[in-house]
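WARN  no MSA supplied for this record, continuing single-sequence
INFO  ligand: 5-amino-5-deoxy-1-O-phosphono-D-mannitol
INFO  echoing inputs
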Amino acid sequence: MCGITGYIGYRDAYPIVINGLKRLEYRGYDSAGIMMYDGENIHLSKTKGKVSDLEKITEQEELRKAGKIGIGHTRWATHGVPNDTNSHPHFSESGDLVIVHNGIIENYDTIKKELTSRGYTFKSDTDTEVLINLIEEVKKNEGCKLGKAVQLALNNVIGAYAIAVFDKTKPNELVVARLGSPIAIGVGKENKEFFVASDASPFIEFTKDAIYLEDGELAIIKRDKGIKVRKIETDKEVDADIQELQLNLEQIEKGGFDHFMIKEIHEQPKAILDTYRGRMLPNEGIIKMAGIDDNLPKFLNADRIIIVACGTSWHAGLVGEYLFEDMARIPVEVEYASEFRYRNPVITSKDVVIAISQSGETADTLAAIKLAKSKGAFVFGVCNVVGSSIARETHAGAYTHAGPEIGVASTKAFTTQITVLSLIALKLAQEKGTLSKTAVNNYLQTLQQIPNQIEKLLEIDPLVQHISEVYMHATNCLYLGRGFNFPVALEGALKLKEISYIHAEGYPAAEMKHGPIALIDENMPVFVIATNKGHYEKVVSNIQEIKSRSGKIIAIVTEGDVTVKEIADHVIEIPETEEAFTPLLTTIPLQLLSYHIAVMLGKNVDQPRNLAKSVTVE
Ligand code: M6R
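INFO  complex generated
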């Protein structure tokens, strides 16, 4: 939901800011803008469209040569349609102050009316332009410096923000602040240069030292001098904690693939291995997870586990429900975070809440966590992004270690989340004695085979491409699965919808006869997951029902399957594994299928329309 970036130092700011925007484009791509200061004048350029459009319009501009300080923005529109005027950065009324903003100012309308009555005029429809004028008004009235004005103004706003503000009258500093939206500050050598960004990717080649602002903090960054961090509410100075980044450049580049999504699909064997590496010793039957080990009584005495998440992470949560109930015999409820947070749910201190989020920044999941904590529940996070808001807000957690996921459509996040949930379920089963020692060892040994099995499974790509060609012009698709693979059906449908814009629905296979079967005719492709364990015969019956209504069947089966092969139009085989781990395999062909269909249709796979990678607004 919008990416912001900035630079202050001794290098030319333009390439740093523009490249930073390219790396942050996954956060929003409705419009892009940049401001440079050349020591005398502010140069500002912005446009509807992508960062590449911005680059084109700045080609001949002085702005490219201007200055060692700059800020930039890539937008996912909230207030105001995506057009040039609503694009960031925004000027204040005097033209002295410039802002970029990620988030939403909820009480902007009240503030706007008040400022209008004091003579302010507004060019855009954005809440951000209201905020920069509020800062200007406070600065004027209080006669204070920019940092103080930002702090006082922010105490009057309701909402979420990550902002970077520049003041032409004090051109050797940038002021940044956050509440609910992330900000990382890269610290260059000897305090000679600083980088600001929504995540650390824009400055990874310049410095490994980063400060992640906490919610409610503001930083005044002065060229050659350093950073002062203060609490927005109290103005109290706090020590800035400099962390060493683990990220490297290679992880955030496409590495020879055409798109991040396909690169990330192919990264899954390694990502899953990285997720369980050091956490299990299959032959000894040992599972070590610090976040669980340190809080075992909480889990073992829990009345139930409530899983909160959104989108793909919610689908992983559904797989988690099957895993925890089946292996550890703990009742589980899986909730959309966005519903849970407003539902006045019954939660007690005997509940354990597991929040799942790739980005660790999803606003609804964050709010659900805060609600659960306020009611006394123990909250455990399963996040990918290290140091993210959710990772910090939860009592304990486990990282997925999938590495950066840049494609907007989640792939490796899903399979690594399931891997973490599998380990937790097995650990709890072991502790509770709901699975025998042999069964746990068996599961661990089987899990250990998954990375190689995925590696081999990825070789089916040509077959999936062929199937994609056959069905790329479908306007509707059904995805069916049962048990552990019902969430995979949901996830398969979501993948197709979000990147190819083909309407698709996932259903539990047996639910089909309660309505969706009416949709089936010779034009309806139905993707059915029919692995050999669990409810195989039942799913075969469902396939027969589709066949007798002339539906087209694309089945995902276990190697060696005979029955479904005879009925289905196309068959994709996955290797043999435990039923509980089949989602780790069955999801792979569905990811590939969505990818190829979207590419064949000429869609922007990594940046599908209307979406953004981390949804930091509700
Ligand atoms: O970062 P999170 O896992 O919290 O994100 C949740 C959803 O926004 C995300 O999974 C979304 O549904 C993806 N676009 C799915 O591919």
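Residues 459-608 form a domain with the Rossmann fold fold (CATH 3.40.50.10490).
INFO  checksum written, moving to next record
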